Amino acid sequence: MQLYKAIPKSMMYQTFERVLEYLEAHNQIAYDNEARVVWVAADNAKLKALLKSGVEL
Q: Cys bridge to 41: 28, 33, 34, 35, which one at CB 3.0-4.6 A?
């Protein structure tokens, strides 16, 4: 809810929820243990290379 309060008021809450659902479904965000939004999208070449060479747990 704190994130929603920080965005422009022209966005409806239902739209905000839909955006979060979309981002989660496409592995762009995740939620931590305290329900905080964490950006997990690899959007630069160096990070992509690190993720590709890493060991999956």
A: 28
What's at 50, amino acid-wise? L
Cα–Cα distance measured from residue 31 to residue 20, given in angstroms and rounded to the nearest whole number: 10
Rounded to 5°, the CA angle 20-24-29 comes to 90
Task: Please list, in sequence order, all residues whose beta carbon lies within 8 angstroms of the beta carbon of residue 4, skipping any fewer than 6 positions away.
Answer: 13, 16
In sequence order, the 6+-apart residues with CB closer than 8 A to the CB of 30 are: 24, 37, 38, 40
Residue 38 DSSP SS3: strand
Q: What is the distance of C-alpha 30 from the center of its chain?
A: 5
pLDDT in tens, the chain (57 residues): 788 999 888 899 999 999 999 999 998 999 989 988 988 887 778 877 877 898 877
